[in-house]
Each structure stands twice: as C-alpha cells, then as structure tokens.
C-alpha cells in the first residue's frame, strides 16, 4: 500500500499532476515505462505551456478534461482495444437504477451523476459500480418521492446515518435532498451530506440556510491546501474560484450552526495532509482524513 500511495502522490503533485491517467485508477503506476522514458515525459510536460490552474494556456490547448461534467463519456471510456472496459459501460442492460444503497451500516442516497468536478481519484473514473451497487443513473435523476418509496421498504432503525453521496454532487438536487432529509428525520435517522462544497456556485445562491435543520453533518471534500493544487487534482468547472468558494461554504456552515468538517483522502501525501490540517485549523473547521479506497 505504501508504494501505491507514493505513486499516487507523484500523480497529484509531481510532474504528472493534472495530467490524464498514468497507468490505472488513482495514478497507481507508469505502466512499466523505463526511468529514461519517464524523465523524457516529465521534461515534455514541463515544456508545455500551462496556466495557474494546472492545464490550459488561454488558447484552449492542454486544457484538463472535465470528466465530472460528462459522466456518460466518462463511463464509456474504453479501457481495451476491443471496446470492452470490464463492465464499466453505462449501456442500458436492463438493470434498475440505484438510488438507495447500503454501506458500512449507513444508507446512501444517489441523487444524480452530475458533478462540477472531475477528480483524479474518483472511483467513477474506472467503474460503474461501487461495492456491488451500480450507480450510473440511466433513466433520469430520481424524484424525492422515488427515493422515499425505496426507503419505505427498509428498516431505517438499522442504519447509523442517511448519507447523500453517490456518483455525483448532491447539491445539484437541493429540493430532492432536503425533502428526503426531512423524511429521514421523521423516521429518527440522522443525515449527512458529502459534498465538494461548490453548492453556492452551482445554485447561484447561499444554500447554507436550506441545510440548517435538514442536514446533521456536512462533509466538505478539501483534498488540497490551495486553489492551484486543488484544480490540478479536482478539475472543477469553476477552476480557481472553486477552492475559495468551498472554504467559505464550510466556514458559513460553522458560523450558521450547521455541523461541518473538511475531509481529505490520505493518498494526497503526508505533507499535503498536514498543509490541509493547518488550513482547516486556521479557518475553524475540523478535518477528517479518510483512507483512499482503490477497489471495491
């Protein structure tokens, strides 16, 4: 695991930061390339014109792919020459869309596949299922009524939390999310929102008041200590505006009495994690460091 994490750190913060896949999910390896080839590739990468956001030179060249904004294309990326990517395709094979799934004693809600980020380490870059749950939505995002109907079939007292987290950013679906959260509370179930923190940008308004009393814990994915590093890893459609917006969003949650924490994935490296910890402390927001999950 140590070697894998070292390779992931090179992926995020080394010569290849912000580049497309370096030999597998999470940037685990260089696919057996020689040291000389890697050095040459690194030199070519350094010679490419880039802007501060880690891709793009004002003329549209070298612009990072925003995988998050086109989940259909992302899901259908062919991994093999014959077009078979190991069952990861989003083709309609008769399977029912998964809006509600269970994991680690919690019940999770998958409201949408739309996301403003295209994170390097996101599990959806490589597969369409997560711990046996097929999370690509092919027949339209669910209504709150559809989600609640699924929850009605379950013994919610068996769960620790209801978590809004799937293959997309839940704050694209504020109405559905808050309605389901109200239902969860009516059944005595605590709620958590896992978010990229860009909800105010996405909705073009302050959504924090709408979360108060509905969401018991907001978990904001930080994943970098500054705007440029964040953009290299997360490829937000909002580019360098995304990072300060998510920091302000988290601070606003705390200020307005909505329990909130930052989270980082440990594969970004110990130095980056410590930088994130210092940032979180300076902003008065707790930090949670979670393990990188490479496979289900």
Written overview of the protein:
The protein is α/β, with parallel strands linked by helices. It has one domain (64-290): Aldolase class I (TIM Barrel), CATH 3.20.20.70. It has 10 helices and 9 strands. The strands form 2 sheets. A 7-stranded mixed sheet has the order 1-2-5-6-7-8-9. Strand 1 and strand 2 (106-109) form a beta hairpin. The longest helix has 14 residues, at 242-255. It is globular and about 45 Å long. The model is unreliable at 1-89 (pLDDT under 50).
Provide the gyration radius in Å. 19 Å
| Mass-distribution shape | globular
| Total number of helices | 10
Q: What is the name of the CATH architecture?
A: Alpha-Beta Barrel
Keywords:
12% strand; alpha/beta; TIM Barrel; two-stranded antiparallel ribbon; 296 residues
SSE layout and pairings?
Blueprint (H helix, E strand, L loop, with lengths): L1 H12 L21 H13 L23 H5 L24 E4 L2 E4 L19 E2 L2 E2 L9 H9 L8 E4 L9 H13 L3 E6 L3 H5 L4 H4 L5 E5 L5 H8 L7 H14 L4 E6 L4 H14 L3 E4 L6
Parallel strand pairs: 2-5, 5-6, 6-7, 7-8, 8-9
Antiparallel strand pairs: 1-2, 3-4
Question: Summarize this, please?
Answer:
By secondary structure, the chain is an alpha/beta fold. The protein is built from 10 helices and 9 strands. The chain has one domain: TIM Barrel.
């Amino acid at each position: 695991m140590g070697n894998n994490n070292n390779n992931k750190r090179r992926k995020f913060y080394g010569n290849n930061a912000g580049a497309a896949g370096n030999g597998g999910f999470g940037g685990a390896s260089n696919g057996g390339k020689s040291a000389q080839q890697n050095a040459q590739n690194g030199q070519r990468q350094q010679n490419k014109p880039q802007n501060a956001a880690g891709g793009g030179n004002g003329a549209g060249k070298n612009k990072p792919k925003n995988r998050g904004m086109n989940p259909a294309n992302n899901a259908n990326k062919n991994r093999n020459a014959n077009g078979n990517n190991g069952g990861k395709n989003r083709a309609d094979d008769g399977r029912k869309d998964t809006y509600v799934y269970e994991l680690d004693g919690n019940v999770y809600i998958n409201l949408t596949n739309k996301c403003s980020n295209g994170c390097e380490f996101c599990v959806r870059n490589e597969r369409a299922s997560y711990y046996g749950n097929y999370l690509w939505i092919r027949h339209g995002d669910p209504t709150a009524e559809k989600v609640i109907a699924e929850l009605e079939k379950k013994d919610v007292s068996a769960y620790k939390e209801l978590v809004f987290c799937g293959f997309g950013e839940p704050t694209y679906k504020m109405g559905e999310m808050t309605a389901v959260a109200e239902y969860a509370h009516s059944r005595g179930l605590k709620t958590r929102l896992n978010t990229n923190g860009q909800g105010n940008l996405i909705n073009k308004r302050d959504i924090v008041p709408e979360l108060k009393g509905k969401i018991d814990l907001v978990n904001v994915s930080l994943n970098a200590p500054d705007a440029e590093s964040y953009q290299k890893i997360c490829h937000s459609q909002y580019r360098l505006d995304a990072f300060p917006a998510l920091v302000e969003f988290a601070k606003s949650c705390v200020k307005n009495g909505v329990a909130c924490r930052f989270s980082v994935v440990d594969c970004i490296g110990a130095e980056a994690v410590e930088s994130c910890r210092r940032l979180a402390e300076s902003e008065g927001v707790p930090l949670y460091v979670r393990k990188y999950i490479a496979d289900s």
